[in-house]
Design the sequence.
């Protein structure tokens, strides 16, 4: 019997699902949440990898009826952030009770996400979401946050898009007006703006896979992020950690509480968690594979990743517990210090001579206008360093930053 893997928005790293399932013996089917891919993921759309492509045009029942043609041996998975809610809605139509539980919004919308944590008694950061600046002002005062550092962002943003820090006593209203009513980089209209207390600490990426509400780790990374002006969450580096690392051991119980609270019982989980002086606090969690090229680096570091775990489970019923760190890996995000015309991007290729060099991907071409790096979508390049010698890894990391400083960007 033919098996069908139906992937909702197979974009970003979710684009890897089509070839992976075909290799495993399934026929991949694509469902797009709109008539075309969301803007940030257009370059990752590979229609040639799918036997059939269906488009959501607003009629959920009609789309579900088309997908019934693939029954009985088919399954649905979300490929990217933009497909999470449509995936959940289709699953409820086709296979009710078989997937994640509770409101789908808790796995996509940060206001619903944090509310779910509060309802389950899971510690979280203080937040308020509204389209009314006066209501936000009242919440700030009532929460004792007046004059304190705040974070302001879209409730349904991704990749660090439009995440800003408001300094002590700073003007949050200007950023509020900038975000409200705009469309973010994954095509979502910002109906509200979320304001949150600022969290001090170290941030981690925690990737998971779940089956019937049982969770396991896929990988864990420690983030290095930087700020530029009021832009925060600018990715600088990630370091993969061992499963028994003390920092991972401290994070894992809290992460499982988060997954339970937002209803992730089946499939991929991707959480970003800040370890604060008061303990771990969720930044955000998603029910899809981690993006930004992370599948490749996860496979390099651990020999597995979200894509492989999904295929192993869906096609062979395998549910691997935990992970092994095979390589000490640091991923480096090369940043543009300003907006302008890139003149000498080739200087970054000098990283190939570093002892720890493994891989580089140049994301911009000479002569093109490049944006100042403010999020994951606006990096100049990605570099992967691997070395068992931590000192050499640190030295090579600094060498990458030194080469970044040599990049010339002229005014446009």
Sequence:
């Amino acid at each position: 019997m033919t098996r069908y893997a139906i992937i909702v928005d197979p974009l970003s790293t979710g684009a890897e699902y089509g070839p992976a399932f075909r290799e495993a013996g399934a026929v991949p089917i694509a469902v797009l949440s709109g008539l075309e891919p969301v803007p940030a993921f257009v370059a990752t759309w590979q229609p040639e990898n799918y036997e059939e492509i269906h488009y959501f045009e607003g009629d959920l029942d009609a789309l579900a009826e088309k997908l019934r043609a693939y029954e009985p041996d088919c399954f649905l998975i979300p490929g990217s952030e933009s497909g999470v809610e449509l995936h959940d809605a289709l699953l409820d139509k086709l296979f009710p009770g078989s997937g994640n539980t509770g409101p789908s919004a808790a796995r996509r919308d940060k206001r619903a996400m944090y509310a779910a944590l509060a309802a389950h008694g899971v510690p979280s950061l203080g937040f308020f979401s509204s389209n009314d600046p006066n209501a936000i002002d009242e919440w700030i005062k009532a929460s004792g946050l007046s004059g304190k550092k705040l974070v302001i962002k879209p409730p349904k943003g991704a990749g660090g898009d439009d995440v800003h820090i408001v300094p002590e006593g700073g003007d949050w209203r200007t950023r509020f007006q900038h975000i409200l009513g705009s469309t973010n980089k994954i095509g979502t209209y910002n109906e509200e703006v979320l304001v949150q207390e600022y969290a001090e600490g170290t941030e981690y990426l925690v990737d998971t896979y779940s089956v019937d509400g049982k969770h396991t780790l896929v990988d864990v990374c420690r983030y290095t992020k930087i700020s530029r002006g009021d832009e925060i969450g600018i990715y600088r580096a990630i370091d993969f950690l061992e499963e028994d690392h003390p920092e991972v051991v401290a994070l894992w119980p809290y992460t499982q509480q988060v997954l339970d609270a937002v209803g992730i019982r089946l499939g991929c989980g991707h959480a970003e968690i800040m370890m604060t002086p008061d303990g771990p606090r969720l930044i955000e969690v998603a029910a899809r594979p981690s993006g930004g090229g992370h599948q490749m680096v996860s496979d390099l570091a651990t020999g597995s990743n979200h894509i492989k775990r999904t295929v192993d489970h869906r096609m062979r019923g395998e549910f691997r517990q935990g992970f092994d760190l095979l390589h000490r890996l640091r991923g480096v995000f090369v940043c543009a210090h300003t907006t302008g015309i890139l003149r000498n991007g080739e200087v970054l290729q000098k990283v190939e001579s570093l002892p720890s060099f493994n891989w580089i991907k140049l994301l911009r071409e000479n002569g093109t206008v490049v944006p100042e790096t403010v999020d994951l979508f606006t990096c100049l390049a990605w570099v992967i360093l691997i070395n068992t010698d931590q000192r050499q890894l640190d030295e090579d990391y600094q060498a990458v930053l030194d080469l970044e400083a040599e990049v010339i960007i002229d005014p446009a």
User: Anything to note?
Assistant: The longest strand covers residues 214-228. The chain has four domains: 4-98, 126-197, 200-327, 328-412. The domain at 200-327 is CATH 3.30.470.20 (D-amino Acid Aminotransferase; Chain A, domain 1). The chain has a mean pLDDT of 94.
